[in-house]
Amino acid sequence: MTMVMTRLNSQAPSVSTFRVKRFELFRSLIEKVVARKGSAHILDLGGTHDYWMSVEPLWRDFNLKFTLVNLGAEPTGDSRFTPLAGNACAMPEFADNSFDIVHSNSVIEHIGRWKEMKQMASEIARLAPRYYVQTPAFGFPIEPHFKTPLFHWMPMPWRIWLTRTVPLGSYPRAETLDDAMRFVEDAILIDAPRFRSLFPAPARIEKERVLGITKSFIAIRD
Hints:
alpha/beta; 2 domains; two-stranded antiparallel sheet; disordered N terminus
């Protein structure tokens, strides 16, 4: 593991150590597929070309093809990427095991409530024999989207009041109650029991920690 980390860091000095450590888990899935097939087709739910290019030094040595599914398809001009418009909760356009790996980073918390989360998890398990799904942990004291300590633990009226008072994280100050509700309901963080329920064994759950506190969960099926 140390040798792999050294190699990855030397390939990508501009990539954060935290992201390199996370990518190491995903790289193990890629290596298994490429060792068997010579290439890998990755379905990324909610992913972008910019994200993958930001970590391109970590995967450039592999023969990879990406299908990016988002609510809207944005052309990339890169033949390695196929952007498609779709719904991560229902993708009947793809047959079972159409891909080698499904990847999703910080998306399932935005998909809706429990019903939609279960639908997305079911589609992930259906579409590839291997998957990697990351989401922020409810138990971490700083809400990652609003960049505000304890925000996600506050009563709903408090969160609405805050969003209407000041800009928070990636959100501007809400001008209306409707804006505030959309912002507050945009992300629903998941705790450990619910995440395990969404991604049962044989998937394993990895925990990313900061100062001993779980910051995010990663479900990996390999």
